[in-house]
Amino acid sequence: MIENVPELLTWGPLDDHGRPIKKKKGQIFDAFINSLRSLNYNVDWRIINCADYGDPTLRQRLIILCRKDKAVIWPDSSHADPDNCPPGKLPWRAARGIIDWDLAGNSIFGRKRPLKATTLLRVLYGVKKFSRLNPQPFLIQLRGTSPSHIRSSARSLDDPLPTITAGGFHTALIQPFLIHTTHQGSNRRCHSLDRPTPTITGANRGELALVEPRVTRMNNIAIEGAIEAVLEDDRCRLVDTGTKKTVAEMDILLRMLQPHELAAGMSFPADYVFTGKNKGEKVKQIGNAVPVETAAAMAGALLAEHALHLN
Fold first, then answer.
1. 176 vs 290, which has greater pLDDT?
2. Among 18, 35, 39, 188, which one is least packed by beta carbons within 10 Å?
3. What is the pLDDT of residue 67?
4. What is the pLDDT of residue 293?
5. What are the residues facing 248 on neighbouring strands?
6. Considering Cα of 21, then 22, then 23, then 28, what sign does the dihedral take?
């Protein structure tokens, strides 16, 4: 069994400048497959979504299965997109299940080292998408700088994690909550919502963040109607689009997902020990790993078929 990125399918020769030769795209991959077949292996490959096999991550990977003298038999998927989940399948495992809710984030406002403009834009798009009327925790992915990447970076906790790679921390948890516009300081009366829960990478650059909202009533009136989020230097204002008036202020907490959360996103058991001198080294191991449930399904199919032929 081989696991790799889908781009391996395009593996081919490079020109004198180290760039792929388009006309020869995939030639080395084909030669690699033929070399396996020359050793009397039957070879088959697919691009699979690890969430379909019970891992709480949307990791897309190329899987190559090889069997000597016997046909390759693929394991059935166990999970499916909850929006289109057929009978007999379980819904994807949600990201909220791997979050350590005992860890608190830090406000994005008033930091000694301000967040990058692209990170703030990701937060703003996420607030607009998930937290305008009834703030909900969400994840943002800190990779990519194009407008489309920034707009699409916010992810619901009801979905699996984005892909976890060896590149570093790429996912952050955003925790927004509303406060009274007429109360400041410690008198921010608010309460936590019920909270349910990848791609995690191994690079220690910070790419994934979680948001957890808390909601309060404004002047004893629940916030309703169309609300626009406006992010400023020192606060996030929610503006009634009908009256153009500020109806609430929102504080926003942000923190990166920690190694034990990323490991849970790859289905590692809580007592699994990662070696390494620091978080970055541990995250690199996690990102380089194969999600546990997917690996078990693929290897289990090969072993089960092997045992069947032995009997």
1. 290
2. 18
3. 92
4. 97
5. 238
6. positive
